[in-house]
Amino acid sequence: MIYGIGTDIVTISRIARLHKKYGKALAERLLSQMEMLEYPQAGKPVNFLAKRFAAKEAFAKAVGTGIHSPVTFRHITVGHDALGKPEFHYDPELQKWLDKQGIRQVHLSMSDEEDTVVAFAVAEK
Q1: What average pLDDT does the structure give for the chain?
Q2: Which residues form the 4'-phosphopantetheinyl transferase domain (predicted)?
């Protein structure tokens, strides 16, 4: 059963402006500890940040909370399965909250085109 859906769209140029202004501090605000390990190797760090920002905003909308504890940028990790499909991973505090809400899984789809990233999330009970 669907608990909620969320979508977010972001222009890469917007994230580029923020990245130029704040540098690594932007990454530290948006990325989980696991993603911070990947960030230095990202071929296009601004795109990396834009995709994660859009995905996490879509997640927050799907679970109906917006971005605030325990649903925070740093508590959500965007990864990929063995076939490259994007997926969410959570820190223990967020996982506990999801379990309490009865949310079994949050599915993720992302796409990008030139200067735009879109993410779509479906939370499932």
Answers
A1: 97
A2: 4-120
